Amino acid sequence: MLIFTYSMIFAITIVSALIVIVSRNTFYSAISLIVTMIAIAGNFLMMRAELIALVQLLVYAGAIMVLFLFVIMLLNLREEEETPRSLMPRKIAGLLLAMIFIVQAAYITLSIFNIDSVRDPIVLTEEFNASQEKRAEETGVNAFAETLFTKYMIPFELTSVLLLAAIVGAVAVGLKEDKRQAAPDAPQANLQ
Amino acid sequence: MDLFDLITSIIKGLAFPLIPLTLVPVIVLFERKIIGWVQERPGPNRVGPWGVVQAVADAAKLIFKEDLRPAGAIAFLHTLAPALTIVTTFLTLSVVPFGPKLSFEFDGVMRTVSMSVLDLNLGLVFFLSITSISIYGIILAGWSSNNKYSLLGGLRSSAQMVSYEINLSFTLACVLILAGSFDVYDIVEAQQGGFLNWFIWRQPLAFLLFFIAQIAETNRLPFDLPEGESELTGGFHTEYSGMKFAMFFMAEYISMFVMAALVSVLFLGGFQGPVALPVSEWIGGPAWLTQALNALIGLFWLIAKIAGQIFFMIWMRATLPRLRYDQLMSLGWKVMFELATINLIYTAAVQLMFGSNPMPLFTIPFLGTISVQWIVLFALGAGVIAGVELLTQAYRRRTLNAC
Prior knowledge:
CATH topology of the domain at 1-78 in chain A: Four Helix Bundle (Hemerythrin (Met), subunit A)
Largest sheet of chain A: none
CATH class of the domain at 1-78 in chain A: Mainly Alpha
Order of helices and strands of chain B: HHHHEEHHHHHHHHHHHH
Oligomer: heterodimer
Largest interface: A-B, 20 and 26 residues
């Protein structure tokens, strides 16, 4: 039963993530990205990280993807408008990123599971689940907040500064375009 | 998860959604009657005595109506959207506590059952995340209908709901700070002992902001811009008919019910009465009788509070004109967001300084739990009313002089 739920959620995550890349229609890509986000929340839930699962739903599936859809609907993107460019630099960059990702993922899985020999996956998940149940008691909201605001305080704040920089950048880009449009008929006196 | 959990979850999952489902026709009838009363007309009075069967007739009409889909609509999403809306609405219902926890002896062990469908210790975060997901129903409905009015309605609603959701969660955080828990039962417990302990006395500003934000979140007038008839015909549900439209309609009324229930839980003591009366002790009897009685009293008080709020919402709908879209956005981002942020910082600071004890500097003397915010709010309200009155008088005088 448990292994069935796990594999269902994993399958949904991977298939919907694949659709995001493969689909030619921007809107469908965005929708399957929402499904991916919800499935990732399900992954967190299966790992007994209830708070992170709910925050994942709230922030990624609920807020960020709404803005994605909003932009897509506003701009009404179509596939014909996509200009074909040389794909070679993108492919090389993609390969590089994929390799980095695979190394990281392998490192994390190996360090968690401590795989010495091939073992029964059901026993493995049950053991993992038992250890997670113990961990869930230690990592309530209080413990989560405490680690976030003490041990990981600086990365947390840096991330928010990064987001702020992105907002400022977006505003700057928007202002620049506005000026360029307004420039021809704007009187010189107004600019000073 | 054993047999007991399985049985109780099935019973709860079947029984509690029935409460708002059966109340939807009643709310619709009352809405039409109250609006008729406000506008000095009888309202529905043809079908049955006092128009009682009107809602049933409407429902029957919707069931037998043809289910149309416009040409060029995306069939899958067009069907998915109403389903998504109503499912997420019922999911938000699952955190509402309808009464105190019950305890039974099952298989020789005492077990407690909560009177909410889900007994989560992160109940309010769950509520917020499901509310944020519920936006997709409206966006998908707007997109898949292949109609510009629908699309614009969907766009407006997504922007509106995202904006007001921030206010919703910021004001909710104030209550969480006071109660120190995400669990709805802990929040109700923190307001025990008479109506003076309700959080509305300690957080009047948060109550006001939450109430406004929840009306915007449920797309009710005066914030029903996603479906403003004069500009967008039917908004996101322009192209829906029959039962699919009925699903949107029911979802709106059920989410009204859920939001009112949540306001009761957060600010009005939840299922507790205004005065803590030990009614069950007076009647006595075996333990199961006292428990059943307590549960019924809790249900009564919750429904009474919800009914009062729904009456207020209908009253507002009948009285206030619809806001313009830019007014809505500037209210959300330039007024309410600032107030909510200031209130959150204030609450956190006061809680850090004084803990949960009565706060000497921040409450009205001799009235324990009542926050000084009330004085500020009353002064502001009186100032606004007096200002408007003075302005109108001056205006009248000037126009009279001009004549």
